[in-house]
Amino acid sequence: DVKVTQSSRYLVKRTGEKVFLECVQDMDHENMFWYRQDPGLGLRLIYFSYDVKMKEKGDIPEGYSVSREKKERFSLILESASTNQTSMYLCASSSPRGIRETQYFGPGTRLLVL
Amino acid sequence: AQKITQTQPGMFVQEKEAVTLDCTYDTSDPSYGLFWYKQPSSGEMIFLIYQGSYDQQNATEGRYSLNFQKARKSANLVISASQLGDSAMYFCAMSQMNTGFQKLVFGTGTRLLVSP
Question: Quick one: average pLDDT of A88-102?
Answer without folding.
Answer: 90
